[in-house]
Amino acid sequence: MNRAKRHRWLSICLAALAVLSLASCGGGNSKNLVPREEEEKRTVNLFSPMEKIYPDAENVARTASDLTVAMAEEALGMTMVYRTYTAENYQDKTYDEVCLDRARNNMDDLYLLNPDTILALGAEGRLEDLSGLDSAKNLREIILTANTVDGKLVAIPQEVVAYGLFVNKDLFDQYKLDLPETPEEFLECCRVFQENGIGTPVGANRWWLETFVLAQAYADLYNGGNTQAEIKALNSGEARYSDYMRPGFEFLQTLIDRGYIDAEKALASEAIEAEGPDFLAGKTPIVMAYWGAANTETAYGKTDFNMEVIGFPSSRGQMPVMPMTGWAVCSGGEHAQDAMKMLDAITSDEALQLYSETNQVISPSKNVKVECVPALKPLNDRIEEGVYVLGSNAGMNVEQWGNTCRIVRLLLGGATVDECMAAFDELQDAALNNP
To answer: Which helix (DSSP H) or strand (DSSP E) does residue 317 occupy?
Structure first.
Protein backbone atom coordinates (compact mmCIF):
# COMPACT_ATOMS: atom_id res chain seq x y z
CA MET A 1 0.00 0.00 0.00
CA ASN A 2 1.76 3.09 -1.23
CA ARG A 3 0.10 5.52 1.15
CA ALA A 4 0.99 3.33 4.10
CA LYS A 5 4.61 3.17 2.99
CA ARG A 6 4.73 6.91 2.60
CA HIS A 7 3.41 7.44 6.09
CA ARG A 8 5.18 4.67 7.94
CA TRP A 9 4.30 6.10 11.33
CA LEU A 10 0.72 4.83 10.63
CA SER A 11 1.94 1.24 10.71
CA ILE A 12 4.20 2.03 13.72
CA CYS A 13 1.13 3.29 15.57
CA LEU A 14 -1.07 0.27 14.77
CA ALA A 15 1.24 -2.35 13.28
CA ALA A 16 0.52 -4.99 15.92
CA LEU A 17 -2.86 -4.28 17.42
CA ALA A 18 -3.28 -7.97 17.87
CA VAL A 19 -2.86 -9.78 21.15
CA LEU A 20 -6.06 -8.54 22.77
CA SER A 21 -8.21 -10.11 25.44
CA LEU A 22 -11.41 -11.02 23.64
CA ALA A 23 -12.13 -14.11 25.72
CA SER A 24 -14.96 -14.43 28.25
CA CYS A 25 -14.37 -13.73 31.93
CA GLY A 26 -14.14 -17.39 32.87
CA GLY A 27 -14.90 -18.98 36.21
CA GLY A 28 -17.85 -18.30 38.49
CA ASN A 29 -21.50 -19.10 37.87
CA SER A 30 -22.09 -19.21 34.11
CA LYS A 31 -25.84 -18.76 34.54
CA ASN A 32 -25.23 -15.32 36.02
CA LEU A 33 -22.24 -14.31 33.90
CA VAL A 34 -23.77 -14.62 30.43
CA PRO A 35 -26.67 -12.16 30.79
CA ARG A 36 -24.49 -9.74 32.76
CA GLU A 37 -21.81 -9.85 30.06
CA GLU A 38 -24.36 -9.18 27.33
CA GLU A 39 -25.81 -6.31 29.33
CA GLU A 40 -22.52 -4.59 30.19
CA LYS A 41 -20.44 -5.25 27.07
CA ARG A 42 -19.29 -1.96 25.49
CA THR A 43 -17.31 -1.93 22.28
CA VAL A 44 -15.60 0.63 20.09
CA ASN A 45 -15.03 -0.20 16.42
CA LEU A 46 -11.66 0.90 15.06
CA PHE A 47 -10.69 1.02 11.39
CA SER A 48 -6.92 0.98 10.97
CA PRO A 49 -4.31 0.54 8.22
CA MET A 50 -2.92 -2.69 9.64
CA GLU A 51 -2.36 -4.96 6.66
CA LYS A 52 -3.18 -8.29 8.28
CA ILE A 53 -5.87 -10.72 7.23
CA TYR A 54 -6.36 -12.01 10.79
CA PRO A 55 -5.75 -9.01 13.05
CA ASP A 56 -6.66 -10.93 16.22
CA ALA A 57 -4.23 -13.78 15.60
CA GLU A 58 -1.67 -14.22 18.34
CA ASN A 59 1.32 -13.84 16.06
CA VAL A 60 2.81 -10.49 17.04
CA ALA A 61 4.38 -9.19 20.26
CA ARG A 62 2.59 -6.38 22.04
CA THR A 63 3.65 -2.95 20.83
CA ALA A 64 3.36 0.42 22.46
CA SER A 65 -0.07 0.92 20.92
CA ASP A 66 -1.26 -2.47 22.17
CA LEU A 67 -0.29 -1.54 25.69
CA THR A 68 -2.11 1.78 25.65
CA VAL A 69 -5.25 0.21 24.21
CA ALA A 70 -5.15 -2.54 26.84
CA MET A 71 -4.75 0.13 29.52
CA ALA A 72 -7.82 1.96 28.24
CA GLU A 73 -9.88 -1.20 27.89
CA GLU A 74 -9.24 -2.15 31.50
CA ALA A 75 -9.89 1.34 32.87
CA LEU A 76 -13.12 1.87 30.90
CA GLY A 77 -14.52 -1.64 30.78
CA MET A 78 -14.62 -1.51 26.99
CA THR A 79 -13.28 -3.64 24.17
CA MET A 80 -11.69 -2.35 20.98
CA VAL A 81 -12.89 -4.26 17.93
CA TYR A 82 -10.51 -4.10 14.98
CA ARG A 83 -11.67 -3.65 11.42
CA THR A 84 -8.57 -3.39 9.29
CA TYR A 85 -7.57 -2.34 5.81
CA THR A 86 -5.99 -5.15 3.80
CA ALA A 87 -4.85 -5.00 0.21
CA GLU A 88 -6.60 -8.33 -0.32
CA ASN A 89 -9.98 -6.86 0.58
CA TYR A 90 -9.59 -3.46 -1.07
CA GLN A 91 -7.26 -4.20 -4.03
CA ASP A 92 -7.62 -1.04 -6.16
CA LYS A 93 -8.54 1.38 -3.36
CA THR A 94 -6.04 3.21 -1.17
CA TYR A 95 -6.41 3.32 2.59
CA ASP A 96 -7.49 6.95 2.35
CA GLU A 97 -10.23 6.19 -0.19
CA VAL A 98 -11.58 3.40 1.98
CA CYS A 99 -11.55 5.59 5.11
CA LEU A 100 -13.49 8.31 3.31
CA ASP A 101 -16.12 5.84 2.15
CA ARG A 102 -16.49 4.13 5.53
CA ALA A 103 -16.64 7.36 7.54
CA ARG A 104 -19.19 8.91 5.19
CA ASN A 105 -21.37 5.86 5.76
CA ASN A 106 -20.84 5.80 9.54
CA MET A 107 -19.38 2.29 9.42
CA ASP A 108 -16.90 2.66 12.31
CA ASP A 109 -16.37 4.67 15.48
CA LEU A 110 -12.65 5.42 15.52
CA TYR A 111 -10.21 5.93 12.64
CA LEU A 112 -6.50 6.54 12.21
CA LEU A 113 -6.33 9.10 9.42
CA ASN A 114 -3.79 10.69 7.11
CA PRO A 115 -3.64 14.50 6.83
CA ASP A 116 -5.67 14.87 3.64
CA THR A 117 -8.42 12.63 4.99
CA ILE A 118 -8.53 14.57 8.26
CA LEU A 119 -9.05 17.78 6.28
CA ALA A 120 -11.74 16.31 4.01
CA LEU A 121 -13.81 14.63 6.72
CA GLY A 122 -13.35 17.52 9.14
CA ALA A 123 -14.58 20.02 6.56
CA GLU A 124 -17.63 17.82 5.94
CA GLY A 125 -18.46 17.84 9.65
CA ARG A 126 -18.10 14.07 9.95
CA LEU A 127 -15.58 14.10 12.81
CA GLU A 128 -16.24 14.84 16.48
CA ASP A 129 -14.73 17.92 18.13
CA LEU A 130 -12.07 16.58 20.52
CA SER A 131 -11.16 19.89 22.12
CA GLY A 132 -13.17 19.08 25.24
CA LEU A 133 -11.18 15.93 26.05
CA ASP A 134 -8.91 16.07 29.09
CA SER A 135 -5.98 14.90 26.95
CA ALA A 136 -6.50 17.81 24.54
CA LYS A 137 -5.52 20.25 27.29
CA ASN A 138 -1.99 18.81 27.29
CA LEU A 139 -1.32 18.87 23.55
CA ARG A 140 1.56 20.73 21.96
CA GLU A 141 0.54 23.77 19.96
CA ILE A 142 1.72 22.03 16.80
CA ILE A 143 -1.05 19.43 17.17
CA LEU A 144 -3.74 22.03 17.67
CA THR A 145 -2.53 23.97 14.62
CA ALA A 146 -2.27 20.95 12.35
CA ASN A 147 -5.52 19.18 13.22
CA THR A 148 -8.04 21.98 13.77
CA VAL A 149 -10.68 22.33 11.04
CA ASP A 150 -13.25 25.14 11.18
CA GLY A 151 -12.35 25.79 14.80
CA LYS A 152 -12.71 22.15 15.86
CA LEU A 153 -9.88 19.83 16.94
CA VAL A 154 -10.77 16.74 14.92
CA ALA A 155 -7.75 14.43 15.38
CA ILE A 156 -5.10 13.58 17.98
CA PRO A 157 -2.02 11.44 17.23
CA GLN A 158 -0.07 9.21 19.60
CA GLU A 159 3.22 10.52 18.26
CA VAL A 160 4.60 13.49 16.37
CA VAL A 161 6.46 12.35 13.26
CA ALA A 162 9.37 14.49 12.14
CA TYR A 163 11.25 14.20 8.84
CA GLY A 164 14.89 15.14 8.45
CA LEU A 165 18.05 14.61 6.45
CA PHE A 166 19.99 11.50 7.47
CA VAL A 167 23.65 12.25 6.79
CA ASN A 168 26.85 10.24 6.88
CA LYS A 169 28.84 12.53 9.16
CA ASP A 170 32.06 10.63 8.46
CA LEU A 171 31.88 11.54 4.76
CA PHE A 172 31.20 15.19 5.59
CA ASP A 173 34.24 15.19 7.89
CA GLN A 174 36.38 13.43 5.29
CA TYR A 175 35.80 16.26 2.82
CA LYS A 176 35.90 18.97 5.51
CA LEU A 177 32.28 19.97 4.99
CA ASP A 178 30.05 21.57 7.59
CA LEU A 179 26.51 20.23 7.76
CA PRO A 180 24.42 22.50 5.50
CA GLU A 181 22.02 25.10 6.86
CA THR A 182 20.80 26.82 3.69
CA PRO A 183 19.93 25.65 0.16
CA GLU A 184 23.13 27.26 -1.14
CA GLU A 185 25.27 25.41 1.39
CA PHE A 186 23.50 22.16 0.53
CA LEU A 187 24.28 22.60 -3.16
CA GLU A 188 27.94 23.29 -2.35
CA CYS A 189 28.18 20.07 -0.32
CA CYS A 190 26.70 18.14 -3.23
CA ARG A 191 29.21 19.74 -5.62
CA VAL A 192 32.16 18.71 -3.45
CA PHE A 193 30.88 15.15 -3.08
CA GLN A 194 30.35 14.81 -6.83
CA GLU A 195 33.81 16.20 -7.64
CA ASN A 196 35.26 13.56 -5.31
CA GLY A 197 33.65 10.65 -7.11
CA ILE A 198 30.23 10.42 -5.45
CA GLY A 199 28.14 10.65 -8.59
CA THR A 200 24.71 11.02 -6.94
CA PRO A 201 25.09 12.56 -3.48
CA VAL A 202 21.38 12.47 -2.55
CA GLY A 203 19.48 9.21 -2.31
CA ALA A 204 15.80 9.88 -3.07
CA ASN A 205 12.50 8.09 -3.55
CA ARG A 206 9.15 9.00 -5.04
CA TRP A 207 7.52 9.87 -1.71
CA TRP A 208 9.67 12.18 0.39
CA LEU A 209 11.25 14.86 -1.80
CA GLU A 210 8.36 17.16 -0.87
CA THR A 211 10.18 17.66 2.43
CA PHE A 212 12.75 19.89 0.69
CA VAL A 213 9.95 21.93 -0.88
CA LEU A 214 7.88 22.32 2.27
CA ALA A 215 10.90 23.36 4.37
CA GLN A 216 11.75 26.17 1.96
CA ALA A 217 8.16 27.16 1.21
CA TYR A 218 6.98 27.61 4.78
CA ALA A 219 10.08 28.34 6.88
CA ASP A 220 8.99 31.97 7.29
CA LEU A 221 5.26 31.26 7.50
CA TYR A 222 5.66 29.01 10.55
CA ASN A 223 8.59 30.79 12.18
CA GLY A 224 8.06 34.45 11.31
CA GLY A 225 5.40 35.28 13.88
CA ASN A 226 2.62 35.87 11.34
CA THR A 227 1.36 32.33 10.73
CA GLN A 228 -2.39 32.81 11.03
CA ALA A 229 -2.44 35.96 8.89
CA GLU A 230 -0.46 34.25 6.13
CA ILE A 231 -2.72 31.20 6.15
CA LYS A 232 -5.77 33.45 6.04
CA ALA A 233 -4.34 35.19 2.97
CA LEU A 234 -3.76 31.82 1.28
CA ASN A 235 -7.26 30.60 2.09
CA SER A 236 -8.83 33.80 0.72
CA GLY A 237 -6.77 33.75 -2.47
CA GLU A 238 -5.00 36.99 -1.61
CA ALA A 239 -1.75 34.98 -1.56
CA ARG A 240 -0.88 32.10 -3.89
CA TYR A 241 0.40 28.71 -2.82
CA SER A 242 2.46 28.61 -6.00
CA ASP A 243 4.45 31.67 -4.90
CA TYR A 244 5.41 29.87 -1.70
CA MET A 245 6.22 26.63 -3.50
CA ARG A 246 8.26 27.96 -6.44
CA PRO A 247 11.67 28.31 -4.65
CA GLY A 248 11.53 24.72 -3.42
CA PHE A 249 10.64 23.36 -6.85
CA GLU A 250 13.37 25.41 -8.48
CA PHE A 251 15.79 23.98 -5.91
CA LEU A 252 14.73 20.41 -6.76
CA GLN A 253 15.09 21.16 -10.47
CA THR A 254 18.65 22.35 -9.82
CA LEU A 255 19.41 19.12 -7.93
CA ILE A 256 18.10 17.16 -10.91
CA ASP A 257 19.87 19.25 -13.56
CA ARG A 258 23.23 18.90 -11.80
CA GLY A 259 22.80 15.16 -11.28
CA TYR A 260 22.73 15.41 -7.51
CA ILE A 261 19.43 13.48 -7.59
CA ASP A 262 18.62 10.72 -10.09
CA ALA A 263 15.07 11.75 -11.02
CA GLU A 264 14.31 8.64 -13.06
CA LYS A 265 15.39 6.32 -10.27
CA ALA A 266 13.62 8.36 -7.60
CA LEU A 267 10.34 8.32 -9.54
CA ALA A 268 10.36 4.50 -9.56
CA SER A 269 11.70 3.94 -6.03
CA GLU A 270 9.87 3.06 -2.84
CA ALA A 271 11.01 4.69 0.39
CA ILE A 272 14.24 3.29 1.89
CA GLU A 273 14.17 0.20 -0.33
CA ALA A 274 16.11 1.89 -3.14
CA GLU A 275 18.36 4.45 -1.46
CA GLY A 276 18.85 2.58 1.82
CA PRO A 277 21.48 0.02 0.75
CA ASP A 278 23.85 2.62 -0.75
CA PHE A 279 23.46 4.88 2.29
CA LEU A 280 24.22 2.02 4.68
CA ALA A 281 27.18 1.00 2.52
CA GLY A 282 28.67 4.50 2.79
CA LYS A 283 28.24 5.22 -0.92
CA THR A 284 25.52 7.87 -0.59
CA PRO A 285 26.09 10.63 1.97
CA ILE A 286 22.52 12.01 2.22
CA VAL A 287 19.03 10.51 2.38
CA MET A 288 15.75 11.74 3.83
CA ALA A 289 13.54 9.80 6.25
CA TYR A 290 11.24 10.02 9.25
CA TRP A 291 12.22 10.09 12.94
CA GLY A 292 11.48 6.41 13.59
CA ALA A 293 13.90 5.23 10.89
CA ALA A 294 16.76 6.14 13.25
CA ASN A 295 15.36 3.80 15.90
CA THR A 296 14.93 0.61 13.93
CA GLU A 297 17.58 -1.72 12.56
CA THR A 298 15.34 -2.46 9.57
CA ALA A 299 16.00 1.12 8.42
CA TYR A 300 18.91 3.27 9.68
CA GLY A 301 19.04 2.40 13.37
CA LYS A 302 22.34 0.54 13.07
CA THR A 303 25.04 2.02 10.84
CA ASP A 304 28.78 1.39 10.56
CA PHE A 305 29.43 5.14 10.44
CA ASN A 306 28.58 8.21 12.47
CA MET A 307 25.06 9.24 11.40
CA GLU A 308 23.30 12.49 12.27
CA VAL A 309 19.75 13.58 11.51
CA ILE A 310 19.35 17.28 10.73
CA GLY A 311 16.64 19.55 9.33
CA PHE A 312 16.21 20.39 5.65
CA PRO A 313 17.98 23.46 4.25
CA SER A 314 15.97 26.68 4.46
CA SER A 315 16.36 30.43 4.78
CA ARG A 316 16.09 29.92 8.55
CA GLY A 317 18.61 27.10 8.77
CA GLN A 318 18.04 23.40 9.32
CA MET A 319 14.28 22.86 9.31
CA PRO A 320 12.39 19.77 10.55
CA VAL A 321 9.26 18.95 8.57
CA MET A 322 6.37 17.50 10.55
CA PRO A 323 3.25 16.06 8.89
CA MET A 324 0.38 14.90 11.11
CA THR A 325 -1.76 11.80 11.28
CA GLY A 326 -4.36 11.41 13.98
CA TRP A 327 -7.01 9.33 15.69
CA ALA A 328 -10.45 10.69 14.89
CA VAL A 329 -13.98 9.83 16.04
CA CYS A 330 -16.75 9.49 13.45
CA SER A 331 -19.64 11.74 14.46
CA GLY A 332 -22.18 9.27 13.13
CA GLY A 333 -20.51 6.20 14.59
CA GLU A 334 -22.71 3.83 16.56
CA HIS A 335 -20.51 4.15 19.65
CA ALA A 336 -19.15 7.66 19.12
CA GLN A 337 -19.36 8.71 22.77
CA ASP A 338 -17.56 5.60 23.99
CA ALA A 339 -14.97 6.14 21.24
CA MET A 340 -14.36 9.64 22.63
CA LYS A 341 -13.68 8.14 26.06
CA MET A 342 -11.39 5.51 24.56
CA LEU A 343 -9.43 8.13 22.63
CA ASP A 344 -9.14 10.30 25.74
CA ALA A 345 -7.63 7.34 27.60
CA ILE A 346 -5.09 6.31 24.97
CA THR A 347 -3.92 9.91 24.53
CA SER A 348 -3.69 10.64 28.26
CA ASP A 349 -0.27 11.62 29.59
CA GLU A 350 0.05 8.25 31.32
CA ALA A 351 -0.63 6.32 28.14
CA LEU A 352 1.51 8.61 25.98
CA GLN A 353 4.45 8.26 28.39
CA LEU A 354 4.27 4.48 27.94
CA TYR A 355 3.88 4.79 24.18
CA SER A 356 6.71 7.31 23.76
CA GLU A 357 9.18 5.44 25.96
CA THR A 358 8.49 2.17 24.16
CA ASN A 359 8.83 3.59 20.63
CA GLN A 360 11.32 6.39 21.42
CA VAL A 361 9.22 9.01 19.65
CA ILE A 362 8.15 12.61 20.18
CA SER A 363 4.97 12.79 22.21
CA PRO A 364 2.05 15.05 21.22
CA SER A 365 1.76 15.97 24.91
CA LYS A 366 3.84 18.90 26.10
CA ASN A 367 4.17 17.12 29.45
CA VAL A 368 5.83 13.96 28.09
CA LYS A 369 9.56 14.03 27.34
CA VAL A 370 11.60 11.07 26.14
CA GLU A 371 15.32 10.75 25.52
CA CYS A 372 16.11 10.26 21.84
CA VAL A 373 19.01 8.36 20.31
CA PRO A 374 22.14 10.54 19.84
CA ALA A 375 21.73 10.65 16.04
CA LEU A 376 18.39 12.43 16.42
CA LYS A 377 19.58 15.10 18.84
CA PRO A 378 20.19 17.85 16.19
CA LEU A 379 16.67 17.41 14.82
CA ASN A 380 15.13 17.13 18.28
CA ASP A 381 16.90 20.27 19.48
CA ARG A 382 15.28 22.32 16.71
CA ILE A 383 11.85 20.92 17.48
CA GLU A 384 12.22 21.64 21.20
CA GLU A 385 13.21 25.21 20.26
CA GLY A 386 9.90 25.47 18.42
CA VAL A 387 11.56 25.63 15.01
CA TYR A 388 9.81 23.47 12.41
CA VAL A 389 7.53 23.48 9.38
CA LEU A 390 4.22 21.66 9.36
CA GLY A 391 3.98 19.26 6.45
CA SER A 392 0.22 19.15 6.91
CA ASN A 393 -2.19 21.71 8.28
CA ALA A 394 -5.93 21.16 8.38
CA GLY A 395 -6.38 24.93 8.60
CA MET A 396 -5.19 25.35 5.00
CA ASN A 397 -7.86 24.92 2.35
CA VAL A 398 -5.44 23.08 0.05
CA GLU A 399 -4.07 19.86 1.55
CA GLN A 400 -0.28 20.08 1.62
CA TRP A 401 1.50 16.77 2.16
CA GLY A 402 -0.22 14.57 -0.40
CA ASN A 403 -0.64 17.25 -3.05
CA THR A 404 2.96 18.45 -2.82
CA CYS A 405 4.18 14.86 -3.09
CA ARG A 406 2.04 14.28 -6.17
CA ILE A 407 3.22 17.46 -7.90
CA VAL A 408 6.87 16.72 -7.06
CA ARG A 409 6.40 13.44 -8.90
CA LEU A 410 5.27 15.44 -11.93
CA LEU A 411 8.60 17.30 -11.77
CA LEU A 412 10.50 14.01 -11.52
CA GLY A 413 8.61 12.81 -14.59
CA GLY A 414 9.72 15.78 -16.67
CA ALA A 415 7.17 18.53 -15.98
CA THR A 416 8.55 22.06 -15.81
CA VAL A 417 8.49 24.18 -12.67
CA ASP A 418 5.90 26.43 -14.32
CA GLU A 419 3.67 23.44 -15.04
CA CYS A 420 3.99 22.35 -11.42
CA MET A 421 3.04 25.83 -10.22
CA ALA A 422 0.02 25.76 -12.50
CA ALA A 423 -1.06 22.54 -10.77
CA PHE A 424 -0.97 24.33 -7.40
CA ASP A 425 -2.95 27.22 -8.86
CA GLU A 426 -5.61 24.79 -10.07
CA LEU A 427 -5.89 23.27 -6.60
CA GLN A 428 -6.20 26.68 -4.97
CA ASP A 429 -8.78 27.90 -7.50
CA ALA A 430 -10.83 24.75 -6.93
CA ALA A 431 -10.73 25.31 -3.17
CA LEU A 432 -11.77 28.93 -3.57
CA ASN A 433 -14.71 27.91 -5.77
CA ASN A 434 -15.84 25.28 -3.24
CA PRO A 435 -15.59 26.98 0.16
So the answer is: none
